[in-house]
Design a protein that fits this description.
The complex is a heterodimer of chains A (about 160) and B (about 575). Chain A is α+β, with helices and mostly antiparallel strands and about 160 residues long. Chain A folds into two domains: about 80 residues, ACT domain (Alpha-Beta Plaits), CATH 3.30.70.260; about 70 residues, 2-Layer Sandwich (Alpha-Beta Plaits). Chain B is of the alpha/beta class. Chain B has three domains: about 170 residues, 3-Layer(aba) Sandwich (Rossmann fold); about 170 residues, TPP-binding domain (Rossmann fold), CATH 3.40.50.1220; about 170 residues, Rossmann fold, CATH 3.40.50.970. In chain B, the strands form four sheets. Chain B has a six-stranded parallel beta sheet, with helices on both faces. In chain B, strands 11-10-9-12-13-14 form a six-stranded parallel beta sheet, with helices on both faces. The radius of gyration of chain B is 24 Å and the shape is globular. The chains are: A alpha+beta (about 160), B alpha/beta (about 575). Chains A and B meet through α1 and α2 of A and β6 of B.
């Protein structure tokens, strides 16, 4: 089962390394990871997507909490949450496919951020399901390169980390 | 406030943290700190002969005394040499602070001379570590390091000190209090959980207390004994918990697990309520997890939430400090005020069953004429020291025979590498323990393989005039591995036979110490008394039966009830 974890961690060198080291050392899985400073420059917010059964997820959360640098760990996916990811996709765009790409881009409200005679680069934002759909539609046309940020997430309503 | 150099800050912090002795080995990157320490002269420094020895000595010192052990090494190879010692302390939750020198900050990441990323290397085996980039941060880091090392579940903390930071100046303000927003170990338990635990125990017909290293760390031996006696519940100890409950007590079942007693393993397998205190259901204890304690409800008391529900399903988890939780339980027992007879009656059949198991398969070995049995040597050592020595062990058969045949009645009297199982631990740890208690008898029980791993520390012991005693059980084999090869690999002794072993008596003498050897059973007592009574360091070598095994044994992957008894 996929779980999205929100982690508040001290913004010190090595803190991120400690978290990723924890995952690799204990054979936990990281599907995606995203981190940046919060309004408080001494604190970073990390969003991590992992997979595992209830028992594994419980261990992951406890092990993360045990790290001296980690302030708070919340399993965002336990409740209602907003999840977003951004991707830059460079698509092969020649002759007829150029129009098709623009149509897809329009449907999914993507932005075209780069144009060349043989390619378009699209910027698409949304939940993972939307990105998956866009990628699948563009795949037969010919994706030359793709870069994804991984998820960031936030709990809905009054709940804050 | 006057400005101080980084190296002076280190000295000042050591003093304020109540550190009397540190163990280390100098080098270019740490020479400045050494200079300051020497010129001040307050802190005693024990010069080892290998940095691994420094780490193990700091560890032994910490286990014996309960204080934070401190060791110091230079950069590069000095630092990497401490890694095994750090990992040893990490797996057994021992409070330690390790100082390593580092190349100047401008050279970090440059593949400089004697540079390693020791913070990166020790990240997975330290409780926490720091690379000090700015001397202004050093006072806070020093205070934090000692706090983190000794609080909650203790562990080793490493501080990496670049040379320019050691010589840089800043104001020294040593924080009085420390409050880390991201680290707040839970010490006090939830009252309701403790009550739930009591309710469960109250109804138990076949309860067992499973006590581990946490009892020793928490100094909860008195509460454990009071509780076991009040409720008439038998106690089994892990290797790390030996001494946490008196081994000679009527209610003691001895050690459990892979090489535990028959009775202890049967008790766990047939129990209806297991009270786990300061133990972590390690694989050496559980055997095949699916078959472990099938009938029991489990109460798990531990200061580290990650240990709870990690390996076995727990019915009543209680996070907090052992000592406080056991005290709370005792308070409930007193408040409810069940009469003594009620407890005795309820557990009568169970205690009788345990007694039957004890008598059916006690720890045993066969005496043979003309051959020294290692178990016999340990028994005689126990008797001749009246069970009052501080014993360190190496790892393997020597360690297991000591755990089985030396009854530990007091905490902090068995210092052994349980979690990592580090051969070469015993001698430097004995040095650390002897530094903590100059007037106590300290004995290292070793095998011929293990003793050679840090043999160079004989020089350290002699230099410090430490009267450490070393018992070498010499079978010219890497004993424990040989046992596995005998049992599971058709006796194919691949690389476990030592066809070359030094003359340990001559070796002792080469270091200026005394050496004694016994080759026949009749010589055991004589060698032991000569060695134990010798003034100063003594090696007592015993040429033991070559292919003796440690039994009982739960083979890997088997249930704990599937013990090999012979």
């Amino acid at each position: 089962m996929k779980h999205t974890l929100s982690v508040l961690v001290e913004n010190t060198p090595g803190a991120l390394s400690r978290i990723t080291g924890l995952f690799s050392g204990r054979a936990f899985n990281i599907e995606s990871l995203n981190v940046a400073a919060t309004l408080d420059p001494t604190l970073s917010h990390l969003t991590l997507v992992t997979r595992g059964d209830e028992h594994i997820i419980e261990q992951i959360i406890k092990q993360l909490r045990r790290l001296i640098d980690v302030l708070k760990v919340v399993d965002v996916s336990e409740g209602e949450f907003v999840e977003r990811e951004m991707s830059l996709i460079k698509v092969r765009a020649e002759d007829e496919s150029r129009a098709e790409i623009l149509r897809i881009s329009d449907i999914f409200r993507c932005k075209i951020v780069d144009v060349s005679p043989k390619s378009y680069t699209l910027e698409v934002t949304g939940p993972e399901s939307k990105l998956k759909a866009v990628i699948e539609l563009l795949r037969p046309i010919g994706i030359k390169e793709i870069s994804r940020t991984g998820n960031i997430a936030m709990m809905r309503e009054k709940k804050t980390i | 406030m006057a400005k101080m150099t980084g190296k002076e800050m280190v000295l000042e912090a050591l003093k304020r943290e109540g550190v009397d002795v540190i163990f280390g080995f100098p080098g270019g990157a740490i020479i400045d700190v050494y200079d300051t320490l020497e010129k001040d002269g307050t802190i005693k420094h024990v010069l080892v002969r290998h940095e691994q020895g420094a780490a193990h000595a700091a560890d032994g010192y910490a286990r014996a005394s309960g204080k934070v052990g401190v060791c110091i090494a230079t950069s590069g190879p000095g630092a990497t040499n401490t890694v095994t010692g750090i990992a040893t302390a990490y797996l057994d939750s021992i409070p330690m602070v390790i100082f390593t020198g580092q190349v100047p900050t401008a050279l970090i990441g440059n593949d400089a001379f004697q540079e390693v990323d020791i913070v990166g290397i020790t990240r997975p085996c330290t409780k926490h570590n720091y690379l000090v980039k700015d001397v202004k941060d050093l006072p806070r880091i020093l205070k934090e390091a000692f706090y983190v090392a000794r609080s909650g579940r203790p562990g080793p903390v490493l501080i990496d000190l670049p040379k320019d930071v050691q010589n840089g100046k800043a104001e020294f303000v040593y924080p009085q209090e420390i409050k880390l927003r991201s680290y707040n170990p839970v010490i006090e338990p939830h009252g309701k959980q403790v009550e739930r635990a009591y309710r469960l125990i109250e109804k138990a017909k076949r309860p067992v207390i499973y006590a581990g290293g946490g009892i020793i760390i928490s100094n909860a031996d008195a509460e454990l004994r009071a509780l076991a006696q009040a409720m008439h519940i038998p106690v089994t100890m892990t290797l790390m918990g030996l001494g946490g409950f008196p081994g000679s007590h009527d209610l003691s079942l001895g050690m459990l697990g892979m090489h535990g007693t028959y009775c202890a393993n049967m008790a766990m397998a047939n129990s209806d309520v297991i009270i786990a205190v300061g133990a972590r259901f390690d694989d050496r204890v559980t055997g095949k997890i699916e078959a472990f304690a099938p009938l029991a409800k489990i109460i798990h008391v531990d200061i580290d939430p990650t240990s709870i529900q990690k390996n076995v399903k727990v019915d009543v988890p209680i996070v907090g400090d052992c000592k406080r939780i056991l005290k709370r339980l005792l308070d409930i027992v007193k408040d409810v005020g069940r009469p003594d007879e009620a407890w005795i009656d309820q557990h009568k059949a169970w205690l009788e069953q345990l007694d039957t198991w004890k008598k059916r398969h006690p720890l045993t070995y066969k005496m043979e004429p003309g051959v020294i049995k290692p178990q016999n040597v340990i028994e005689r050592l126990y008797e001749m020291t009246k069970g009052r020595a501080i014993i360190t062990t190496e790892v393997g058969q020597n360690q297991m025979w000591t755990a089985q045949f030396y009854k530990f009645d007091h905490t902090r009297t068995l210092l052994t590498s349980g979690g990592l199982g580090t051969m070469g631990y015993g001698l430097p740890a004995a040095i650390g323990a002897q530094m903590a208690f100059p007037d106590k008898l300290v004995v290292d029980v070793a095998g011929d393989g293990s003793i050679q791993m840090n043999i160079q520390e004989l020089a350290t012991a002699m230099e410090q005039c430490l009267p450490v005693k070393i018992v070498i059980l010499n079978n010219q084999f890497l004993g424990m591995v040989r046992q596995w090869q005998e049992l599971f690999y058709d006796r194919c002794y691949a690389s476990t036979e030592f066809t070359m072993t030094p003359d340990f008596v001559k070796l002792a003498e080469a270091y200026g110490a005394k050496g004694f050897r016994a080759t026949r059973p009749e010589e055991i007592d004589d060698v032991l008394s000569k060695g134990l009574e010798a003034k100063g360091l003594a090696i007592m070598e015993f040429a033991i039966a070559r292919e003796e095994g440690v039994f009982p044994m739960v083979p890997a992957g088997k249930a704990t009830t599937e013990m090999l008894l012979v």
